């Protein structure tokens, strides 16, 4: 349980820094006033990502574990020129391993995977500041960027876990910024297509409600269809049906989700683990995004699209059996920058708790033997089971709470 203890210690340290930042908001805003967005994000990344990285992986000599080792294997094999899916297994989109391979060429060490995640997270934050600058005052946006870097969810999932989930949001924001600058819906759609080919299959789900709010539907649809058709044809010709490996991840049973929480109270009559729940989860996820897309059309596009994004992926996190609470990293950045009232003490405390339970639960659940609950007695079978179930239930409740949170209007 050393990893869990370390995560708890990091969470407590983050809580202290967050409290100090909220208390010194005016001074921090004044400090950031004369800085450009790239300089501000660069400073935040240096102090709250590169320094922790140096302490953990260089000074203390700790070796990356868990997902990082899997990412490193994919990166090294891609760097050797091997073909994804055919020559090595990958649960990610085809370009993912080759992007990591760039780092493997520059620094043949698993730590470069973490460094790659840190760099691309900084790109996502910088792009997000530009994305939201029309609707949120500059000083407020810069301060919220600081709060994001201080959150235990972002710090642990990026530096310790080296998770790539934030890339989904990054590619969407980069696509929109390109359309802002060029006015081209085609370029916008092509970058979204690149995002699908580089991240995860679940990126596709966001495109359905995004299509509903898109005015130039033909210009949006045909580049995606063209790239998608060509990609599938090439993948099938080179790997056969092995390119379906990412879809196979849906059969991996994880927690927490609504089924895992409700199952013991239904005495295992929900069919936990059955394939039909995967389809129900996907349908519920897309439907949640579409309902938001059809609602609140009076909101600015940036807010509307971000709200759809948060709702869709937060829903995915708690309805899909193969999802787990690391998915918080998909929507944590837009949620922090545009949708929370950090002047509300209740919201701040609940949001911090949400970060803590989402980052601790995967480690706790895995070390507890990935427990499953078939009847109420299983929940109360021991302290380990009770703690795990309580964490799961807390994540579900808080996810539902933050899905419905009102956007910040400063």
Automatic annotation (TrEMBL):
The keyword Membrane applies. The chain crosses the membrane at residues 39-62, 112-132, 141-162, 186-213, 220-238, 276-294, 301-318, 324-340, 347-366, 386-403. Keywords: Membrane, Transmembrane, Transmembrane helix. The keyword GTP-binding does not apply. This is DUF2029 domain-containing protein. The lineage of its organism: Bacteria, Pseudomonadati, Bacteroidota, Cytophagia, Cytophagales.
């Amino acid at each position: 349980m050393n990893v869990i203890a370390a995560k708890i210690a990091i969470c407590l340290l983050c809580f202290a820094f967050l409290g100090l930042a909220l208390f010194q908001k005016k001074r921090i805003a004044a400090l950031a006033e004369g800085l450009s967005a790239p300089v501000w994000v660069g400073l935040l990344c240096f102090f709250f990502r590169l320094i922790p990285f140096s302490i953990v992986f260089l000074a203390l000599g700790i070796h990356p574990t868990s997902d990082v080792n899997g990412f490193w294997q994919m990166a090294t094999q891609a760097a050797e020129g091997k073909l994804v899916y055919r020559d090595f297994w990958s649960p990610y989109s085809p370009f993912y391993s080759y992007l990591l391979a760039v780092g493997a060429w520059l620094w043949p060490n698993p730590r470069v995977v973490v460094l790659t995640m840190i760099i691309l997270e900084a790109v996502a934050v910088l792009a997000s500041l530009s994305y939201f600058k029309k609707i949120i005052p500059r000083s407020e946006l810069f301060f919220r960027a600081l709060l994001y870097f201080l959150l235990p969810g972002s710090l642990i999932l990026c530096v310790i876990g080296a998770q790539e989930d934030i890339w989904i949001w990054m590619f969407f924001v980069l696509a929109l910024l390109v359309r802002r600058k060029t006015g081209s819906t085609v370029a916008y759609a092509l970058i979204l297509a690149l995002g699908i080919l580089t991240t995860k299959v679940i990126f596709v789900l966001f495109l359905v409600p995004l299509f509903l709010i898109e005015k130039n539907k033909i210009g949006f649809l045909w580049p995606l269809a063209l790239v998608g058709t060509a990609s599938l044809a090439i993948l099938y010709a080179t790997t056969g049906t092995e390119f379906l490996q990412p879809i196979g991840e849906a059969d991996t049973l994880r927690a927490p989700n609504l089924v895992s929480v409700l199952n013991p109270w239904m005495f295992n009559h929900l069919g936990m683990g059955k394939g039909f729940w995967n389809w129900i989860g996907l349908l519920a996820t897309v439907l949640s995004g579409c309902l938001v897309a059809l609602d609140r059309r009076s909101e600015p596009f940036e807010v509307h699209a971000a709200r759809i994004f948060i709702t869709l992926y937060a829903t995915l996190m708690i309805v899909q059996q193969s999802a787990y609470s690391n998915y918080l990293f998909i929507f944590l950045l837009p949620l922090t920058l545009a949708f929370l009232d950090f002047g509300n003490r209740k919201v701040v405390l609940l949001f911090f708790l949400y970060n803590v339970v989402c980052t601790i639960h995967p480690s706790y659940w895995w070390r507890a033997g990935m427990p499953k609950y078939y009847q109420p007695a299983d929940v109360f079978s021991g302290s380990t089971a009770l703690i795990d179930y309580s964490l799961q239930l807390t994540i579900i409740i808080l996810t539902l709470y933050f899905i419905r949170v009102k956007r910040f209007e400063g």
